[in-house]
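Course assignment 3, question 2. Fill in each field.
Student: A.L.
Task: Predict the tertiary structure for the chain below.
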Amino acid sequence: MFRRERKLYDPVHKRAGTHQWTDSRTSTSRGTAMAALEHSVVAYAVIVLIPFGFEFTASYITPIVSGAFSWTSFNIFPWNFVIFSFFFIAGCTWIMWALSYTLNKRRSEKLMVDGPYAYTRNPKGFGYLLILLGLGILMQSAVAIFVMMPAIVLAYIFYLKILEEPFMKLRHGSQYDEYRSSVSLLFPLPSRIRR
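Answer field:
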């Protein structure tokens, strides 16, 4: 009536002295489900949440800022669509490149320093910022580009410095220090500027 799942002996845990049995089918299906879920969430964020949230916030802030500044918008139609398309495609490329790389290496506990992570320590975040910049140009909003974008970049850098970097240093130790000294935090920069 009940089928017994085949268990495989994990030699890694045997060397560590913990003798653990793992279910290969369950771990593989769980990894595939998590990969599909992450792809779906990122696609939803890129296509729906980021554009509408950014546009709503820019529309809400523009009347407030216009009281202090007379220049809150500019007109570059129809070039705004061309420039937006470039930034959107570039941002999505960075995000999907990083996602495909991390999903392929998900089971590894090593610090990732190859692929997009050889250019920036946060390629997905860099891709999101490119998309937001393109949206600001698409809306032809000076507020979105010159007020919201710097605020988002500063908040994101603050988050990376305060929360993510201490965690990565705790997890990877001196290896992360060496990686941090050679690869920029957010924006891909030439090696002589990174340090």
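Instructor remarks: Residues 41-194 form one domain. Residues 24-66 form the longest helix (43 residues).
Grade: pending
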